[in-house]
Structures are given as structure tokens and as C-alpha cells.
Amino acid sequence: MRSRKILMIAGFLVTWTFVIFYFMPKTNGEFPLLKNRRQHTVEKLEQNAREEYHKTDKLMINLLGILQSKYLNEPPEAEEQEAKESHIASNSNNNNNQQQTILSLQEPPANDKLLPDEQRQQEDLQQLQQEVLETPNETEATQQRMTEAATTVITRLGNNQPVIPVLVFACNRVSISKCLDNLIKYRPSAEQFPIIVSQDCGDEATRNVILSYDKEVKLIEQPDQSDIFVPPKEKKFKGYYKIARHYGWALNHTFSKGYEFVIIVEDDLNVAPDFYEYFLGTHQLLKQDSSLWCVSAWNDNGKANLIDTSHPELLYRTDFFPGLGWMLTRELWQELSVKWPKSFWDDWIRHPEQRKNRVCIRPEISRTQTFGKVGVSNGLFFDKYLRYIKLSEEFVPFTKMNLSYLLKDNYDRTFLKEVYTYPVVTYDELRRNLITRDGPVRIQYNSRDVYKRTTKMLGLMDDFKSGVPRTAYHGIVSFVHNKRRVYLAPNVNWKGYDLSWS
Ligand SMILES: *[C@@H]1O[C@H](CO)[C@@H](O)[C@H](O)[C@H]1NC(C)=O
Ligand SMILES: *[C@@H]1O[C@H](CO)[C@@H](O)[C@H](O)[C@H]1NC(C)=O
Ligand SMILES: *[C@@H]1O[C@H](CO)[C@@H](O)[C@H](O)[C@H]1NC(C)=O
Questions:
Q1: CATH superfamily of 154-391
Q2: How far is the CA of 227 from the centre of ligand 1 (A)?
Q3: Which pTM value belongs to this model?
Q4: pLDDT (tens digit per residue) in 318-330
Q5: Strands, sheet with 484-489, edge to edge from the N-terminal-most edge strand
Q6: The domain 414-501: what is its CATH number?
């Protein structure tokens, strides 16, 4: 019984507490004290609101500051910024309206009058907005800077491999498509080997062919189409003057982008499957060995019967500058560009004053082949010679090979020494197959005439440039005759090239 009473009292107390806790707040509104408190809360909220407005002001100022600085300093945001800018500019007629709208957002609704502090902020803000609205002029400069930044070229890839542009020289041959098809077909990476076509002459049809490659190639145009000065007695060589001017401009332009190497190709060249691999495999040698100044894809004596087709990996050093698909470094261009000639640049470059005993690397089997005969260089030479130069068909993994045998010290120690260990034979013995032993042989020459006569009989190129026979290294010309390696070589005590032999 007693416990039931206690239970009832406890139950009552619990219910009472429950009622007080849940129903009291509902009637609280009637208590004057609470009314005061609520008013207080509202005031506090208002104050908070004002503070929030101040913060918003500050945020707006910050935001405008950020926008402005972004706009003036940050290239990647260019287009976005520009869009904003032009939007603002297009509304420039109702500048005031717009400003007002922006400002009205800042005004604390409860306060008509701004406190000095707020006023200053408003003024700051206004000034900033004004600046933003008035920058289209500065924007142009910025935009230009941004465009420049956007076109800043990549000269090294992520793996630190160099980007090596292929600079194709074009004028008015629409058959350039053959050259470009080939270059694109074998290109292992468009990123590493951007193809830049430089056009002179402004021929519309050729230009359209180049443009039809869209993003595969980049077209640049030689801007100086003024009539070129040619001395009266050289009138017929005007084309060579234009070529020299074109080369000078295009190389200057391309190297100015920061590339370390450039491969030069003419619009009438086909390239071999390992064309890029060849230049990629040899580019380091140009940096390592200061006696090297070019890598050429061309073998002047590259006719099928004069080469060893079973050794497409074979490379040589040569004192003769072959051109026809060749690579040079920026350092070399810096040296040559300041004294670049007005015409006949290839003969000029071969002169001792330019060459300074430097040599090129050339392959046993050409990595380029010329298909064009219409143009500045004469068609006869093409028909008689150039068309028979064999284009290599195999892919040689040059980048995976040890090519240090081509460095001067290694090469001179082996190649030069070996050549003079081979037995001397006469052209007659060779022709009549009277040589009993296997292996390479040497034919000696000691005069210009003997050289000329012998090369003509063997089907080799017989000319000299600045006294250097084509493909020669220290006067030695290497070729194949009836599957035998033959070296046409001067005496052991050779003293150097004779300019008068040209
Ligand atoms: C750029 O603005 C400045 C004043 O800030 C003015 O003197 C100049 O003429 C403007 N330039 C152009 C190209 O509008
Ligand atoms: C290349 O540019 C350099 C530096 O601007 C200049 O000195 C040189 O004459 C230019 N060379 C050619 C061939 O345009
Ligand atoms: C590359 O060849 C040279 C000789 O031309 C040799 O001295 C060198 O050890 C070789 N390097 C490698 C990594 O095989």
C-alpha cells in the first residue's frame, strides 16, 4: 500500500515536471521580461546583419581586387577575363546604372547614412570598380602578353627529350603534299616533331595545300615579298637570292621560339621510315662533339649499286656538307645567322670560313630522296643523278644504339687507321675483278684529275665544293663496288683539302 502511494506521488511529480517543461515556453511570450529579451535578440541580430554587410563589403573589395590582379597578371584566365571585360565594356553606356546596382547591394537597408568608415570603403570599392571598368586599354596589352604566353612553345618534353621541329621550305610546288604525307606518316610524335612549313612566294594553290593539313602542320609565311636586289650579271640566279633570304628568315623565326635543334627539309623530299629515329639518335652527338656541326640524311653517293644495303645502320663522318634533310643546333644558327649570305647559302656554308673543319654525320643509305625536278636546281642533275639515290626502307633503332664511334676521337682512331691498313688496288684491277683476297680495298688518288677520272668510271660524284669531294672524310670517299667495300683515298700523309680543286 505504502509503496503504491509513493508510486502515485512519484508519477504525479513526473507528470508535473513534464507539463512545466513542455507547456511553459508556450506561455512565455506573455512574460514582459522575455519580451525584453526577444527585443534584445532582434537588436543583436540586426547588429549581426550589419556586421555581415560590412564583411560582404570587404569580400566584394577583395573579390574585385582578385579579379583585377588575375586579369592583369594571369594569362590562362585570359579568355574568361576578356569575356567579362567585353561584357562590362558593352554596357559602358549604362556604367552608372551598373555601378549603382552593384553599390546598392552594399547598402545596409536599415541605415541610410553611411558611417565614415563605411563611406571610405564604398569609395574604395567605387574606385576599384571604376578601374575595372576602365581597363579595356590595358587589357589589350595584357591580352597580347597572354597570347604570346599561350603560343610559347614547348622545347622539351616531360621526359626531357628535346622537341625538334621539322622546318619544311615551300614556295610554289603543290607536290609538297607528297613530302608532307610522308613526314606525317612516319612521325612518331606530333608533340616532339612539330612540322612547320615556311612558305615564300605566296603561291595561293600551294598555300591551300599546306593549309589543308590543318593541325598536322603549322604554316609560317616569309613576310618580305619585296623584289630582291640581284646584281645585274647574276640576274638568272635570282631564285638563289630568294632562297637565301627565305632560309635566313625562317631559321631565325624558328630558333627564336627557343628550340635547340631544327631539322630542315625541302618540299621535294621523301623521308625514310626511320627518318625521325635517325635524328633523335644522333642529336646528342651534336652537343657532345664540337667538331660536329650537322647531321644529314643524305648520301651523295647513295645510288643502289654504290651502297651496302645490308647495313642500313652504318653512319659516317663527312667533311662535305650534304644538306638535303639536315639538322643543326641553335648555337650554330646563332653563329651563322649574323653573317648569313644573300645567295648560294649552301656553297657559302661549305667554305672554310664557315665550316672551320667541322663535319656532318651522314648515313650509308639515304633517309631522304628527292622527287622534284622542277625548281631552282636544274632538272638535268636530277635526271642524271638524284633520282637514283636509294631511300632506306628499314627501320633502324638508332636511339637504342651506341653511336659514340662517331665522336671524333673514336672515329679517327678506328676509321682513319683502318682505311690505311687495306691493300691498295688500281681501278683496273677492281673492274676486272683481279683481286684475289676478300675484304675492303683502297684506291689511291694524288691529284684532282686522277680523282675526277676514277670517280667518273666508278659512277661516283666527281665534283668538289671548297675543295672537298662529296661524302669525303679526310679526303676518303667510301663506297661499294661489286659487293666489296672500297675507299678512294689520298696518300697517308694527306695535308688537307685544296680549294683550287673545286
Ligand atoms: C590607354 O589609357 C590611357 C590612360 O590610362 C590613355 O592615355 C591612352 O590613350 C589609352 N590608350 C588607348 C590605346 O586607348
Ligand atoms: C637573324 O636575327 C638576328 C638577330 O635579330 C640578326 O642579327 C640577323 O641578321 C638575322 N639573320 C637573318 C638571316 O635574318
Ligand atoms: C660505346 O662504344 C664505345 C666505342 O665506340 C665504347 O667505348 C663504349 O664503352 C660503348 N658504350 C657502351 C655503353 O656500350
A1: Spore Coat Polysaccharide Biosynthesis Protein SpsA; Chain A (3.90.550.10)
A2: 38
A3: 0.70
A4: 999 999 999 999 9
A5: 424-425, 441-444, 484-489, 477-481
A6: 3.10.180.20
